[in-house]
Hints:
By secondary structure, this protein is of the alpha+beta class. The chain is built from eleven helices and ten strands.
Amino acid sequence: MGDIDEIERRAREVGQLIPEQYPSHVDVGEEWLWWHVEKKRWRRVELLEVAEANPQRVKVQHLDPDMGARAVWSPIRRCRIPWSSRDAYIDSLDRLSRAVGHPFNEDERDAAMDIVLEGVSSDVAFIGYKPGGTLEVNDPIRLSSLSGVSVTELLGHPDTYRDADGWLIPWPVAKRVAMLLAQRDPLRFVRAVAREELETGPRIDASIEELIADGRADLAWITDEEKEEVARKSLARSEGKRAVILEWVGGARPSLGQEYRRLSGQYRKLARLAAEAVPELRSRRTKSAATLADRIDAAVRAAGRMPS
C-alpha cells in the first residue's frame, strides 16, 4: 500500500472533530445537547426561544428529571449540537481528549518543540498550539521523508485524530519523530544548543536596553553582574531541555552530545580563568598589560555569557 492509500485509509478510521452547531430561530421546539458548566455534564433541553438576529442567549427548558423541567435563559454557546447527533459529537470530543491527553515530560516536550521548529517547516508540522505534546501534521508524506518515520507509523497510533488544522499525532509518536529528526542531523542541533547558550546574554542585554528606551529608567543602573545573573537564571530554566536534545542527538552514539558538554565545560572554565586574570593585569599599570587585559575582556564578552 502506498503512502497516499495509507493516508486515505487512516483518514476513514481516526477520530475527527464534529464542529459545534449553535441553534437558530428555526430550531425552536427542537431538542438540543446542552453543557451544564457548573456540574460539568451534558443535559437534554428543548429550545423555547431563539432570536432571529445573531442571538447571544436562548431560552431552554430542561428535560432531565433531576432538573425539574426548569426553563432558563442560557448563553447560546452552551447549546452544542442537536440531540439526535449527540453520540457522534461526544465521541469526537472523547477521542480528541485521548489524542492530546498523553502524559509527557516537560523538558522532553520543550526539546521536541525546538527540534521540530528547527528542522521542519511549520506548514509541514508543528508542536505547541495544541495541548500537551501533540504534533500537528499537515503533510505526513513530507514529514515522513524528513524524519524517517514511515507514514504508517506516523499515523498509526490508535489515538491519532483529525481536526480543521490537520492530523493530531499523540505524544509517544511526536517524541519519536523529534528524536529521529535530531539523530538525522546531530551537528545541526548541537549547534542550536550552543547558539542558544551564546545568544542568551546578548538577547537579555538587548531586552533591557529596549525597556530603558521605553521608560524603565530604573534599569539604567543595572550592573553587568546583575545582567549575567539574569542570563544564568534564564539558561538554568532551560537546562533540562538542552540536556534532552544533547541526549537525543546521539541516539545509540551519545558521544557527540557528551563531547559538546565536555568542550562547553572546558570553555566556561577557561573563560572564568581569563576573566579572573584581567584585574591582575590591570594592576600592573603598564601599557602592554592594559592592552592584554582589554583584549582578554573583549574576547570573553564577544564569546557571549555562558552559564556558570
